[in-house]
Amino acid sequence: MRPLLAIIIKGKEVMFESLLDHLYSALITDSRYVLILRGLRNTLIITFFALLLGLAIGLILAIIKVTVHSRRNPLLWLANLYTTIIRGTPVVVQLIIINTSIMAQSNNKILIAVIAFGINSGAYVSEIIRGGIQSVDRGQTEAGRSLGLTGAMTMRLIVLPQAVKTVLPSLGNEFITLLKETSVAGYVAISDLTKAGDTIVSRTFDPTAMYLVALVYLVLVVGLTALLSLMERRLARNDLR
Amino acid sequence: MKKKWLAALLALTMAAFAGCGGGAGNSSSAPESSAPESSAPESSAPESSAPEEDAPAESAADSSAGGAVEKIKAAGKIVMGTNAEFPPFEYVEGNDVVGVDADIAAEIAKDLGVELVIENMEFTAALLAVQNGQLDMAVAGITVDEERKKSMDFSNEYVTSSQYIIIAKDSGLTADSLKDAGVIIGVQNGTSGDFYATDDIKGDPNTEEVARYKNAILAAQDLMNGKIQAVIIDELPAKSIVAANEDKLELLPDKLTEEQYAIAVQKGNQELLDAINATLDRLESEGKIEEFLIKHMGA
Predict the structure, then answer these.
(1) Is the C or the N end of chain A the one with fewer CB within 10 Å?
(2) Measured between alpha carbons, how far is residue B152 from residues B34, B155, B265 in Å?
(3) What are A80-127's pLDDT values in tens digits?
(4) Could you give the domains of chain A?
(5) B81 has which bridge partners?
(6) Is the Cβ pair B151, A205 closer than 8 Å?
(7) How far is residue B159's CA from residue B290's CA, in Å, rounded to a whole number?
(8) Is B107 found in the same domain as B215?
(9) One domain, residues B94 and B215
(10) So what's the ipTM on this one?
């Protein structure tokens, strides 16, 4: 590591030059920025599709958990088992198991990552949505049913729209967590953003590339947060009427 | 709404400060770690970098001369970093990191009269940590190469090794065919096998056909599942891996490289290096290193 402090004392121009040197070797030498861009692309693809898969799994599980009342119903049992197993084990362990045995025959690493992170996220999302649905007053369901709507229609038209508003902040939190959790994908040689930084550092022996990777994650999370708060504000408009 | 923007701005500013903090933290250890400065990764123009490197180099001389070995003796322990996923040089048995390197390090500690502390970490992390002085030495089957020499100092070489190719049994691949498009080579991230596959075989620093794993064992699993076509790793780990999976894997006879392992210490730490070399010489003359290799090859 360069002695930044010693250089700062010597003057600003020198510090600037050394910063440029660091950036140059982290990004420009051997076109290393290509690794970062490719890593960013893979991270975004994995996060986006894992998010969709997680939402789908989570929604189905949540509806099962809320609507099935009989404790002996195998569907409820399965849904709870799923949540217990997936939430009870680390995502990186699940990723390794999926890579080396469940999807052993697949060559598509990105697909493996999407499925591993999607399955993982689904368990958390299901609990978030379940909480949201249960926070909607029972009176709403009763009112829907007494107006002649079916159970499914009441859920879709009355309960879920109200639940969405309650769960949005926690769901946003889960998405941010998911984005950062994909950083363990490099464990099984998936070239995500973190792996790109790691590969560059292994060549330069200088952690500058990791600072850049951290900055990219930070920008992504700040962007995602802004997007979510925009959605929250949109949904809150109805409350003001 | 304004408050939110303010909060975002604040967060960003804090992040910026955190960044500076990291830099300052590193620089506080500047005297010891200034030597890697001269590594000037193939970028800085000579005329601009020459003057700024003078001062740190001097301070490095007087600080690391200040009794690196004494410090270790005073602390009563020597801290070694390694990546225990590299049999037979380092692997985990029960709760302990064992292997040829661990045995050598234990002898070094014994000669210094201190306790050996082994930190098991990522290979690339161990290389960084020894540069920063977070570790006294890295003993991890580290191949001596010119790039690494710029950032750390190496002891005498204690083992000769080379890179070998593992392929799936009967896949008919040859060393030459690894160049072909679509042939994916698995390696351990940041090892000399990684560099050979990337630079010499694929010839493209940004190739997508080198898969970089956390360790060679994970790479071998993917090879057995047909996700990749070959694994390149050091001779003895390669033999250990193939021996454990003889029905599925085979070793190509080609020696890809000639390389030597040595122990890495922080740049400029000649005193510790001398102590390490004394122990290595003794082990060499007593035939101990050979003994360690035989002892751990069965594992």
Answers:
(1) C
(2) 11, 10, 6
(3) 999 999 999 999 999 999 998 899 888 899 999 999 999 999 999 999
(4) 32-236 (1.10.3720.10)
(5) B119, B138
(6) yes
(7) 9
(8) no
(9) no
(10) 0.75
